[in-house]
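User: I've been trying to design a sequence by hand for this structure and keep getting stuck. Would you show me what you'd pick, starting by listing the structure so we're on the same page?

Assistant: Good idea, let's start from the same input. This is the structure you sent:
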């Protein structure tokens, strides 16, 4: 029995939730500020992402889920934000900040050109996979969302499940619609 179930052939989409840091060895680095990883979770999620990518099935990655998706596709993580950037991204509870959305990205359908999101993380995407494109960013330049260039994938750095507003409902509706198309 593994950490996560084996992929189920008739499951049409994958939602990756937030969580702890990814082992930097997965993106060719040594630890430079990462918290202790959960190697079993890293391997399980890698296997699941690979399974869904090979079948061109929708994936929605939230926070760590977006980071893991980027890593599986060849990107890297900035392991620890410099202190001057903490005010936008981490605290004992969620902190809120504005994001700008690319008008041709899926988020603009729900969030418009700008909106407010929550943050509770100390890592961000550093090098974005060639398979992904940036569709939202914070005012400090941190990447807040990516979507697949040719893959049915979307990743957000924030936690829409904790925001409860209509733009976030639109995000989950988008994912459900993609899954239903399978």
């Amino acid at each position: 029995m593994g950490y996560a179930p084996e992929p189920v052939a008739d499951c049409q989409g994958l939602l990756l939730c937030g969580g702890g840091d990814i082992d930097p060895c997965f993106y060719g680095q040594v630890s430079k500020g990462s918290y202790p990883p959960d190697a079993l979770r890293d391997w399980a999620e890698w296997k699941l992402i690979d399974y869904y990518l090979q079948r061109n099935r929708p994936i929605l990655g939230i926070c760590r889920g977006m980071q893991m998706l980027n890593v599986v596709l060849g990107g890297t993580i900035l392991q620890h934000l410099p202190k001057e950037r903490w005010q936008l991204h981490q605290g004992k509870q969620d902190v809120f900040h504005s994001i700008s959305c690319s008008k041709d990205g899926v988020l603009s359908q729900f969030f418009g050109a700008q909106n407010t999101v929550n943050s509770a993380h100390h890592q961000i995407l550093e090098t974005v996979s060639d398979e992904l494109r940036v569709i939202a960013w914070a005012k400090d330049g941190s990447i807040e969302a990516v979507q697949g260039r040719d893959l049915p994938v979307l990743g957000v750095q924030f936690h829409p499940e904790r925001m409860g507003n209509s733009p976030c409902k639109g995000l989950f509706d988008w994912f459900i619609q993609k899954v239903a198309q399978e």
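That's my pick for every position. To get oriented when you compare it with your attempt: The chain is about 25% helix and 25% strand. Residues 7 and 50 are 10 Å apart (CA to CA).
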